[in-house]
């Protein structure tokens, strides 16, 4: 039987197709119907609520996976059933700390980071820290800001000097929230907001902004595939992982499980990372990641998981956002509207 | 007059009005049967689904379905009762149920809408529910102090019934304080009401601009010979065929700082390179792009009405001494009212409901009320989205009613 | 020819109509029409003629009463199955069709073949002398041309009943006479039934089997033309049909159908009593202008003669209309044939006029 | 449109202004379309006029987006472009499939909404129509409710349409019927509003005339009413078609993988990548619609000529 | 009264008009109108009357020639400054205004104050007997009522020139006569100039100072009513105005304005030569029906008498129209006044009729 996989579409799904779908079908004979969604969590939740589930596997952000899992809408996945790493490490140990959760098997780790067009800055005068993003004196000009409290508030605090490890403690207090918004105030007049991942490279290419928050994969794409002089600033970025879930009531749970086992095993995971610059959550897969598919540029240094990129990085807290998203979302929207 | 009328009767003594009504009943039925298929269609394919959806704005069983014990306790104890050990015992039993049915998330989410940050209270406690031992109050407070927060208990009491007005409370920028009284939320959390008003204002501005731009064009098209008019009509229709997404993107290309228009102006020396005009990522951008998208919705109804206005009326007016302007204002314009009405209705309502374009070109303050609906939909907060949608719906219906009152839907029908 | 309500082709029984529930536009209409009859409705503007036609055609519903067509209550038959041809007062030509297409329309809906259709359309167009206009749009026609097309369209499918609402109103005399002839001819040769509305009394009198005079939502008189003209039932009819000299007075003597009336200036005249009941009643004595003579040699024996002062002579082609002052009334009219040997009267002239007392009719005072 | 000779200077000035305004509005309407056409040949994946494009350097231009349109989804896109390749394209290319779906769904949704909507507008425009305002409000409500609510509500309902009667009868989601019904509902307000407005100027005596000539209501409608209100019906139908043709949210929820439409295809991965491919699609659609409109106009003029009606 | 082209109030000079660039609807129109004149255009349907009015009012442009109003080429003056009141053939009442608003409109655009406006509107409504209808919409009026409103609206603002396109066509005789009187009265008391289109010859003859007879895009004759009737310039005019008996024949003798005509049955008659030029020419002898007598005692001395066979007697109220066969032609008509002592003729009867040879006019053969 065919299985239906719902994912992000675009280059993300293109990478999945090459790294997972085609080899999986070749190996098992199970066909794959690929469906895209703006954010798969929304239609999946609707499908489960309506008792009309057509999706077998979906790719979720961690926070969505936690939320829907708590609500009983995703099948719990016993991580111990996952295949061992290619080096023999049991699955439970092979996945990076904390990335496994009750209902989701992680697929990749992506980061939202600051990026800029290197050609627009003199040698050595390029932004070098997250604080620079908020420094309009030193770096006048527009900047692209993600239109979401998540990530943005964390970055604001880090730019304001809060160490990554303390960000959520601070943000959990009213003063911390005020502090984050106060920091945001400093760039409010210079901000161009974006929502779609494709917008930041466009903004950079058009010269509309001097720097922008962006998903690291998009910047990498522009740089490697189109030769754009775009660079990612590996400081104060926020990373999160996303992965596969099985909706409660999915029509083909067995084949779905087969697929997840296959896709999240070491070799395919590495193949995936060669095709899009998101890090693999499998420790055993990291060394397998070679050059960017079809080039001789090594992929590893461009991944959010590359140790040198992780010096001042923050792991997005699903627990925090599950609790506070509604409230902070409303406050963020109110802040956007206020002058 | 009507006194006399009510006394008027037909030959056999029936009131004339009644006789008239009977005589017209057939005609009424016939008219109604023409509408019936569509009405049935809309009711089945649209009204029922939407009704069910909007019902969620007052119905949310995320909490109520997993708290049988607490519900009993709430029924037995009036509002304001300080939760006692029995209450906590009920809570513990319900937490156990949540754990079994994996509903803690649902329950927590429901309470979290009202008291922020309380979702994890439920998931966390449910996870540990199996280990709870009496006295439950102490045990639960041991897990989290928040269990004695009266706001949580108030929220649980309200949410123990699936029927609720909580979401409208939020939509009106209100919340319940510890005593359960309705108060305004913090200044920096107030958003919906302001946005609501703003949305209608922006829609009105867009409608007005569309009307101003569409009127001359529709008039030109209506007065030109058919052959020429049809050629020009292509110019109106082309944008129409083009995806909304593409057109919106195209406006970004045109309007942005380094965009086509600014670059042309710079090249012509009209503005300096550092004097580029900010035409997008603000209200201006939203309005320009939306006017462009909605303009055909104004032009076409105007055109189809203008095309059939006989020239003899304008002639008559001129012969009676009216200047061309007066003729236009007093004779032509009133006869285009059905078209204006249709266009205004279309454009305004569409403008109120748009969210993609404002999101893409609107910048910080470019979002409209529908963006909020969208926001909650993507967060799967059906109830909140439904409440906001209902507000939008009611707002438009009130305007529709006003329009009917002031101008009259019947103005859509002359005579 | 006159139909009873049982075997009537068309019958209106106690029909009332109100548009607004406040005023009755048709008050109590009773009318029977035999098959093949030519009935004309005549009446002042706004008296409900068009409304009656519309009810008969099925486009307005009577608020009360019953209308039957061929014995069937009309409500049972949808308008398009009634086989009624209709000429609308505003023509109602289809603006998007050419003249030819307008005419072909009723034939087409009857499934008539193309060649037969074309023949019929051509014949109908020729009848109204519009053969050359088949390809025009209605907007490109003059008013009279439009009316002719409307007429042709109502007749082209040989309906058994034709309703015509002032079908010749926009035509000149020549053409009107030609069309009157054509209509009469069709009526007779095809045996169709016609309900005709006109403002032209000549038309009404010459064409109709019977004329219904409408006023104020009621039929005032329903009679063959001559009877209507010669023996009007009331002074509305007398006044409405043809020209009429009216002298107010009081009945002094009443003797069967003979009356003596005292005019306002005290003069006594003899008259035929028509609508008066008692001595002392106020009356209007009506005398048709053509029954009044002024040449002494033409005033018949036994005529009543009276003094008159000529006020105005109006040239009307075949007739010279002479207005004069008689018994204190200055609207008294006399018609002289415009013959070459006519004695010309001139304003200010005083003459003596006379009429046969049988021609003076004492009517009710309205 | 020529101004009579007696027009005053003010009138002349106004007339000129009026023409200028019209021209400007046309420019306003068309410029976004003009802008996207060259960009669809951009060699880069951005909506930016590059230096190379501006200097008309051939390197700045490419057909890559058109190529990607054709080949994406094909089983053997690299094969020689022979008959088999074209057949592969026709059956498997994502955009071709999407185009077919868009046309099929748009067509049926338009038919459904135009027929039902016109019929209802006829009833609504009769003076004797009872409860006109309320019914009108119900009928235009699909336009008022935010589309995302509509889509979700319909998804829930269409998942098991018989649930309100307490039993199951299959689902309408992931079916053509479901998408067509949803799109028809969304298109109906446009038909209602434009047709009602057009009917308001309609001379009712023409209907009577037709009936008196023996045409039954159906015939009267098609031969007399329809041709006269056609501009309104067409613009209503056009609105309905475009609504369907440009609709993505309802498709997102209701359509299955087999019912992907053009906008849905554009939407795919829009978060991930907006590429000039969507501009290429838009350009192709523009070309097709110009061709269609031109053909329609030529046919119209021909039929006028054949009927011997002077051009007006 | 007759104007020369210099001092004329309105003048058409060599005006041509074509709608489609193919056929000329108005061919060569020359017409001068003095201030205060009442000119009527009379002519068959489609002869270009409305077109002329439209050009004068400024709604159609002449393809050739010049129209002047008050000495100025009309092209220079915008319609609203021409001060022309116009009654349109299709009324053109504003559907979105009530009757009262329709009437107030021309006053309002002239900036007249509210109370004055109301007075004037009321007076105008009363004039057309529509005082009670001020609050109705045009769609709620009967055809005749609409026409009356159109008339009132064209007159309410006291224009100096009024164009009326069949303003009384939809009215019954009584009302029409009343309105004729009102229009004449306004014309005389206010000194307004009127261009009037009508199909009613009686109306044309009684109301006008001059009548222009149109045919085929040309004025066939432009003359005062009596001249038109008594001395038509050609047989089109003779045939178009009034009723006419036409006997075809050949000129046998021509002697100044005296001619002897040989009719088709060989009979010879004397006639006045009007439009004939030579012996042997074909001619139509026209004799007005009212100039023919059949009572032997009334046939004047020196009359030409001829045999006739009565074919039909048509009742027309004041007149009995008798159709008979004369000299082989069966459309010969004689009108008898419907007096009580009239000798009734009956079909089949053979009589001898006679007329004064001066009344027989030998005209061109069309
Ligand atoms: N808009 C038009 N396009 C083409 N031809 C027209 C147009 N209007 C009128 N005509 C033609 O011009 C001729 C003169 O028309 P006009 O309306 O002036 O006649 P009319 O004398 O007023 O006739 P009627 O007495 O019937 O109203 C007619 O043959 C008519 O068909
Ligand atoms: N739709 C309507 N609504 C209200 N009143 C109407 C309507 N139609 C006609 N009337 C009124 O009904 C009365 C009769 O109208 P109808 O049209 O039958 O008159 P008519 O006899 O045909 O007059 P005319 O000779 O002027 O055409 C008039 O007073 C008119 O104002
Ligand atoms: N707020 C939702 C952000 C979703 C970002 N997804 C990025 C996917 C990268 N593969
Ligand atoms: Mg009438
Ligand atoms: Mg005319």
UniProtKB/TrEMBL annotation, chain B:
<feature type="transmembrane region" description="Helical">
    <location>
        <begin position="284"/>
        <end position="305"/>
    </location>
</feature>
<feature type="transmembrane region" description="Helical">
    <location>
        <begin position="227"/>
        <end position="246"/>
    </location>
</feature>
<keyword id="KW-1133">Transmembrane helix</keyword>
<feature type="transmembrane region" description="Helical">
    <location>
        <begin position="31"/>
        <end position="50"/>
    </location>
</feature>
<feature type="transmembrane region" description="Helical">
    <location>
        <begin position="381"/>
        <end position="403"/>
    </location>
</feature>
<comment type="similarity">
    <text>Belongs to the binding-protein-dependent transport system permease family. CysTW subfamily.</text>
</comment>
<feature type="transmembrane region" description="Helical">
    <location>
        <begin position="200"/>
        <end position="221"/>
    </location>
</feature>
<feature type="transmembrane region" description="Helical">
    <location>
        <begin position="339"/>
        <end position="361"/>
    </location>
</feature>
<dbReference type="GO" id="GO:0055085">
    <property type="term" value="P:transmembrane transport"/>
</dbReference>
<dbReference type="Pfam" id="PF00528">
    <property type="entry name" value="BPD_transp_1"/>
</dbReference>
<keyword id="KW-0812">Transmembrane</keyword>
<keyword id="KW-0813">Transport</keyword>
<dbReference type="InterPro" id="IPR000515">
    <property type="entry name" value="MetI-like"/>
</dbReference>
<protein>
    <submittedName>
        <fullName>Polyamine ABC transporter permease PotB</fullName>
    </submittedName>
</protein>
<keyword id="KW-0472">Membrane</keyword>
Automatic annotation (TrEMBL), chains C, E:
<dbReference type="InterPro" id="IPR017871">
    <property type="entry name" value="ABC_transporter-like_CS"/>
</dbReference>
<comment type="similarity">
    <text>Belongs to the ABC transporter superfamily. Spermidine/putrescine importer (TC 3.A.1.11.1) family.</text>
</comment>
<dbReference type="InterPro" id="IPR003593">
    <property type="entry name" value="AAA+_ATPase"/>
</dbReference>
<keyword id="KW-1003">Cell membrane</keyword>
<keyword id="KW-0813">Transport</keyword>
<keyword id="KW-0547">Nucleotide-binding</keyword>
<dbReference type="InterPro" id="IPR050093">
    <property type="entry name" value="ABC_SmlMolc_Importer"/>
</dbReference>
<keyword id="KW-1278">Translocase</keyword>
<dbReference type="Pfam" id="PF00005">
    <property type="entry name" value="ABC_tran"/>
</dbReference>
<dbReference type="InterPro" id="IPR003439">
    <property type="entry name" value="ABC_transporter-like_ATP-bd"/>
</dbReference>
<dbReference type="Pfam" id="PF08402">
    <property type="entry name" value="TOBE_2"/>
</dbReference>
<dbReference type="InterPro" id="IPR027417">
    <property type="entry name" value="P-loop_NTPase"/>
</dbReference>
<dbReference type="InterPro" id="IPR013611">
    <property type="entry name" value="Transp-assoc_OB_typ2"/>
</dbReference>
<feature type="domain" description="ABC transporter">
    <location>
        <begin position="10"/>
        <end position="241"/>
    </location>
</feature>
<dbReference type="InterPro" id="IPR005893">
    <property type="entry name" value="PotA-like"/>
</dbReference>
TrEMBL record, chain D:
<feature type="domain" description="ABC transmembrane type-1">
    <location>
        <begin position="99"/>
        <end position="296"/>
    </location>
</feature>
<comment type="similarity">
    <text>Belongs to the binding-protein-dependent transport system permease family.</text>
</comment>
<keyword id="KW-0813">Transport</keyword>
<dbReference type="Pfam" id="PF00528">
    <property type="entry name" value="BPD_transp_1"/>
</dbReference>
<dbReference type="InterPro" id="IPR035906">
    <property type="entry name" value="MetI-like_sf"/>
</dbReference>
<dbReference type="InterPro" id="IPR000515">
    <property type="entry name" value="MetI-like"/>
</dbReference>
<feature type="transmembrane region" description="Helical">
    <location>
        <begin position="136"/>
        <end position="158"/>
    </location>
</feature>
<keyword id="KW-0472">Membrane</keyword>
<protein>
    <submittedName>
        <fullName>Binding-protein-dependent transport system inner membrane protein</fullName>
    </submittedName>
</protein>
<keyword id="KW-0997">Cell inner membrane</keyword>
<keyword id="KW-1003">Cell membrane</keyword>
<feature type="transmembrane region" description="Helical">
    <location>
        <begin position="18"/>
        <end position="41"/>
    </location>
</feature>
<feature type="transmembrane region" description="Helical">
    <location>
        <begin position="178"/>
        <end position="199"/>
    </location>
</feature>
<keyword id="KW-0812">Transmembrane</keyword>
<dbReference type="GO" id="GO:0055085">
    <property type="term" value="P:transmembrane transport"/>
</dbReference>
């Amino acid at each position: 039987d065919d299985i239906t996989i719902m994912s992000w579409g675009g280059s993300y799904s293109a990478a999945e197709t090459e790294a997972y779908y085609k080899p999986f079908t070749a190996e098992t004979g199970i066909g794959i119907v690929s469906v895209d969604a703006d954010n798969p969590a929304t239609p999946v939740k609707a499908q489960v609520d309506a008792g009309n589930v057509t999706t077998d596997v979906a790719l979720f952000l961690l926070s969505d996976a936690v939320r829907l899992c708590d609500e009983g809408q995703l099948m719990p996945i016993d991580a111990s059933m996952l295949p061992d790493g290619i080096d023999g490490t049991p699955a439970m140990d092979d996945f990076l700390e904390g990335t496994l959760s009750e209902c989701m098997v992680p697929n990749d780790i992506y980061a939202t980071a600051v990026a800029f067009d290197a050609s627009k800055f003199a040698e050595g005068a390029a932004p070098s820290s997250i604080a620079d993003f908020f420094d309009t004196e030193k770096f006048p000009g527009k900047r692209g800001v993600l239109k979401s409290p998540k990530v943005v508030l964390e970055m604001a605090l880090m730019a304001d000097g809060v160490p990554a490890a303390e960000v959520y403690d601070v943000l959990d207090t009213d003063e911390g929230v005020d502090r984050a918004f106060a920091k945001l105030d400093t760039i409010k007049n210079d901000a161009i907001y974006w929502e779609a991942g494709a917008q930041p490279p466009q903004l950079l290419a058009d010269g509309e902004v001097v720097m922008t928050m962006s998903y690291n994969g998009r910047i990498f794409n522009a740089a490697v595939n189109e030769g754009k002089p775009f660079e990612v600033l590996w400081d104060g970025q926020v990373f999160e992982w996303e992965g596969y879930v099985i909706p409660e009531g999915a029509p083909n749970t067995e084949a779905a499980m087969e697929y997840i086992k296959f896709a999240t095993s070491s070799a395919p995971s590495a193949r995936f990372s060669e095709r899009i610059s998101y890090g693999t959550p499998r420790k055993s897969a990291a060394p397998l990641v070679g050059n960017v598919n079809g080039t001789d540029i090594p992929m590893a240094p461009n991944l959010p998981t590359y140790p040198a990129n992780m010096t001042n990085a923050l792991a997005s807290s699903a627990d925090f956002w599950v609790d506070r998203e509604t409230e902070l979302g409303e406050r963020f929207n109110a802040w956007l509207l206020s002058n | 007059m009507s006194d006399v009328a009510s006394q008027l009767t037909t030959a056999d003594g029936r009131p004339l009005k009644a006789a008239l009504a009977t005589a017209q009943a057939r005609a009424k039925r016939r008219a109604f049967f023409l509408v019936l298929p569509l009405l049935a269609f809309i009711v089945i394919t649209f009204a029922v689904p939407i009704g069910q959806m909007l019902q969620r704005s007052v119905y949310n069983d995320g909490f109520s379905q997993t708290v049988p014990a607490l519900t009993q306790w709430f029924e037995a104890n009036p509002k304001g009762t300080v939760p006692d050990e029995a209450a906590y015992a009920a809570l513990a039993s319900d937490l156990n149920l949540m754990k079994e049915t994996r509903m803690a998330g649902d329950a927590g989410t429901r309470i979290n809408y009202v008291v922020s940050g309380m979702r994890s209270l439920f998931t966390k406690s449910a996870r540990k529910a199996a280990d709870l031992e009496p006295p439950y109050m102490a045990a639960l407070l041991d897990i989290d102090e928040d269990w004695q927060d009266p706001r949580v208990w108030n929220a649980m009491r309200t949410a123990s019934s699936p029927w609720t007005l909580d979401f409208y409370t939020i939509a009106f920028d209100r919340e319940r304080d510890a005593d359960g009284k309705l108060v305004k939320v913090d200044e920096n959390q107030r958003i919906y009401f302001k946005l609501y008003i703003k949305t209608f204002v922006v829609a009105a501005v867009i409608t007005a601009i569309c009307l101003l731009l569409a009127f001359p064009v529709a008039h030109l098209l209506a007065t030109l010979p058919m052959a020429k008019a049809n050629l020009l009509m292509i110019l109106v229709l082309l944008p129409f065929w083009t995806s909304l997404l593409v057109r919106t993107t195209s406006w970004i290309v045109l309007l942005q700082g380094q965009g086509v228009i600014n670059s042309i102006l710079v090249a012509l020396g009209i503005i300096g390179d550092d004097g580029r005009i900010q035409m997008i990522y603000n209200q201006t951008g939203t309005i320009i792009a939306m006017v462009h998208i909605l303009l055909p919705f104004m032009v076409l109804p105007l055109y189809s009405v203008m095309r059939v206005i006989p020239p003899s009326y304008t002639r008559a007016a001129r012969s009676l001494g009216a200047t061309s302007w007066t003729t236009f204002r007093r004779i032509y314009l009133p006869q285009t009212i059905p078209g204006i009405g249709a266009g205004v209705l279309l454009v305004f309502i569409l403008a109120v409901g748009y969210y993609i374009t404002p999101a893409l070109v609107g910048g910080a303050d470019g979002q409209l009320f529908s963006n909020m609906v969208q926001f909650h939909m993507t967060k799967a907060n059906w109830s909140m989205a439904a409440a906001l949608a209902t507000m939008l719906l009611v707002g438009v219906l009130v305007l529709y009613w006003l329009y009917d009152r002031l101008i009259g839907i019947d103005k859509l029908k002359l005579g | 020819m006159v139909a009873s309500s049982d075997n009537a082709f068309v019958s209106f029984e106690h029909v009332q109509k109100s548009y607004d529930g406040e005023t009755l536009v048709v008050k109590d209409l009773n009318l029977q029409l035999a098959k093949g009859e030519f009935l004309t409705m005549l009446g002042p503007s706004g008296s409900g003629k068009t409304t009656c036609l519309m009810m008969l055609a099925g486009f307005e519903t009577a608020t009360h009463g019953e209308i039957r067509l061929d014995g069937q209550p009309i409500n049972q038959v949808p308008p398009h199955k009634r086989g009624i041809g209709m000429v609308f007062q505003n023509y109602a030509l289809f603006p998007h069709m050419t003249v030819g297409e307008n005419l072909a329309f009723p034939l087409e809906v009857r499934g008539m073949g193309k060649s037969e259709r074309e023949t019929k359309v051509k014949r109908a167009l020729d009848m109204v002398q519009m053969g050359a206009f088949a390809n025009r749009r209605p907007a490109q026609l003059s008013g009279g041309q439009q009316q002719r097309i409307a007429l042709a369209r109502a007749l082209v499918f040989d309906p058994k009943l034709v309703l015509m609402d002032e079908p010749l109103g926009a035509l000149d005399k020549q053409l009107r006479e030609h069309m009157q002839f054509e209509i009469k001819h069709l009526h007779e040769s095809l045996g169709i039934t016609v309900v005709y509305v006109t403002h032209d009394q000549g038309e009404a009198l010459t064409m109709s089997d019977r004329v219904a005079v409408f006023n104020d939502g009621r039929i005032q008189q329903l009679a063959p033309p001559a009877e209507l003209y010669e023996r009007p039932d009331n002074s509305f009819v007398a006044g409405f049909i043809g020209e009429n000299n009216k002298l107010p007075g009081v009945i002094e003597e009443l003797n069967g159908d003979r009356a003596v009336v005292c005019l306002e200036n005290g003069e006594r005249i003899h008259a035929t009593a028509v609508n008066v009941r008692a001595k002392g009643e106020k009356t209007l004595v009506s005398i048709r202008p053509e029954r009044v003579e002024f040449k002494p040699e033409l005033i018949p024996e036994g005529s009543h003669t009276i003094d008159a002062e000529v006020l105005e002579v109006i040239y009307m082609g075949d007739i010279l209309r002479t207005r004069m002052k008689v018994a204190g009334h200055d609207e008294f009219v006399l018609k002289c044939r415009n013959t070459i040997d006519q004695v010309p009267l001139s304003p200010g002239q005083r003459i003596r006029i006379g009429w046969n007392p049988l021609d003076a009719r004492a009517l009710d005072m309205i | 449109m020529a101004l009579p000779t007696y027009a005053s200077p003010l009138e002349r000035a106004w007339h000129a202004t009026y023409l200028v305004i019209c021209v400007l509005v046309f420019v306003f309407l068309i410029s976004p379309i003009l802008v996207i056409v060259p960009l669809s040949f951009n060699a880069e994946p951005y909506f930016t006029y590059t230096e190379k494009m501006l200097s008309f350097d051939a390197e700045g231009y490419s057909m890559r987006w058109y190529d990607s349109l054709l080949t994406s989804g094909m089983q053997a896109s690299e094969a020689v472009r022979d008959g088999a390749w074209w057949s592969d394209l026709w059956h498997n290319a994502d955009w071709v499939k999407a185009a077919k779906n868009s046309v099929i769904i748009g067509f049926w949704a338009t038919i459904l909404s135009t027929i039902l909507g016109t019929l209802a507008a006829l009833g609504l425009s009769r003076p004797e129509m009872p409860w006109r305002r309320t019914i009108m409000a119900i009928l235009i409500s699909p336009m008022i409710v935010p589309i995302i609510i509509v889509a979700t509500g319909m998804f829930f309902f269409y998942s098991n349409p018989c649930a309100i009667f307490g039993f199951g009868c299959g689902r309408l989601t992931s079916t053509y019927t479901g998408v067509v019904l949803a799109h028809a509902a969304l298109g109906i307000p446009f038909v209602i509003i434009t047709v009602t407005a057009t009917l308001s100027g309609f001379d009712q005596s023409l209907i009577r005339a037709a009936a008196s000539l023996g045409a039954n209501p159906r015939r009267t409608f098609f031969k007399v009413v329809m041709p006269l209100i056609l501009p309104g019906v067409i613009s209503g139908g056009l609105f309905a078609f475009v609504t369907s043709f440009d609709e993505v949210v309802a498709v997102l929820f209701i359509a299955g993988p087999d019912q992907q439409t053009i906008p849905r295809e554009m939407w795919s991965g829009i978060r991930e990548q907006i590429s000039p491919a969507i501009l290429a699609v838009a350009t192709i659609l523009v070309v097709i619609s110009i061709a269609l409109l031109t053909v329609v106009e030529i046919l119209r003029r021909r039929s006028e000529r054949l009927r011997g009606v002077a051009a007006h």
